[in-house]
């Protein structure tokens, strides 16, 4: 319960802690005195290292989140997830022949998908996870690659899947196959690679490498970003590939 001074109460592995509201779950865990030596990486929502399960007061559901991207709430009862194990099946990307059954051959368990959509409802990236697994099952490698494009391999979906599918690995192979065999060639990229091979940027790179760290950091912070053309929509693989997001976001529904 909030104490009126901006402190709220969270429970971490069964112990109660008073922490300031407005912190991310990850910052609140550190505020409570824990040093995170596992389950923390980029702290920016990209690496997938910080999957978290939690309960809320008054709800019978288990919720999922990335600890570095989600604010701590009064009454949260938290536990950090281990990574969902994947028994590695080595493959040689150079030897793969992209065919409609390629993903199914590498991940036969996708045939066990019961279309429950639990994976999509638990994905902190809001990805249409079931749709990309179904695309993989149908042999639509391009669609599986595009719909899984923003997967950060946190493993939350896999922890909840009744068919024990390792979604992140399926999406990764789809993207690798798409990138190597199916994506149309990019002339700009080929031109830039040729320029690099011809040494066009050698002097510039040598100059950068010899800079002191502070100057390098300052230049990094002042770097410019590629402008988005006026009126251009931000890229959205989900929209482009016409996959409707799950209309029932039960977590928000309950929170509201
Ligand atoms: S959780 Fe598993 S079984 Fe359910 S839709 Fe997703 S992939 Fe299919
Ligand atoms: S698809 Fe699964 S592994 Fe990828 S970000 Fe979503 S929940 Fe995490
Ligand atoms: S620490 Fe990288 S996604 Fe949270």
Characterization of the model:
By secondary structure, the chain is α+β, with helices and mostly antiparallel strands. It has 3 domains: 7-80, Ubiquitin-like (UB roll), CATH 3.10.20; 93-183, Fumarate Reductase Iron-sulfur Protein, Chain B, domain 2 (Orthogonal Bundle); 187-220, no CATH class. Helices cover 36% and strands 10% of the residues. It contains 12 helices and 5 strands. The protein has helices at residues 25-31, 102-106, 118-122, 129-138, 141-147, 156-160, 167-182, 187-197, 202-209, 213-221, 237-240, 250-255; strands spanning 7-12, 15-20, 51-55, 63-66, 77-80. The chain has a 5-stranded mixed beta sheet with strand order 2-1-5-3-4, with helices on one face. The two termini are 18 Å apart. The relative contact order is 0.11. The model is unreliable at 242-256 (pLDDT under 50). The structure holds iron/sulfur cluster (2 copies) and FE2/S2 (inorganic) cluster (FES). One iron/sulfur cluster (SF4) is lined by residues 113-119, 129-130, 133, 161-163, 165.
Could you provide a short overview of the structure?
This protein has helices spanning 25-31, 102-106, 118-122, 129-138, 141-147, 156-160, 167-182, 187-197, 202-209, 213-221, 237-240, 250-255; strands at residues 7-12, 15-20, 51-55, 63-66, 77-80. The chain is an alpha+beta fold and 256 residues long.
